[in-house]
Amino acid sequence: MEKLSNKEFNEKWRGKTKQFALKVIALSDEMPKKESARVINQQLLRSATSVAANFRAACRGRSKQEYYSKLCIVVEEAYSLTLLLSYSLTVFKHPPINQ
After folding, report:
1. Measured between alpha carbons, how far is 65 from 25 in angstroms, rounded to an integer?
2. 32 vs 54, higher pLDDT
3. Domain assignments of the chain as residue spans, ordered by start
4. Suppose 48 and one of 24, 36, 56, 67 were both cysteines; which one would form an S-S bond, judging by CB atoms 3.0 to 4.6 Å apart?
């Protein structure tokens, strides 16, 4: 496994979280047009964009402690996102997002 510098790691994951958020946005346009889907869809959008936004904020952390704190928020949002995606997959029989 290749060792990345902090800067390379941050750049790589900034791109990955942004691309994932864009995929979730595209997925949201394909969700069924019913109330239950609308509620899950809104949460999916918030969580996916929050992961990307909070990772960017972590990268701008002024200290290691601030970076770690913001990264913990990213992990928390990502965990919520996986739960919402599993709901979407189960309830709406939607195919998973290809990464």
Report:
1. 31
2. 54
3. 6-91
4. 24
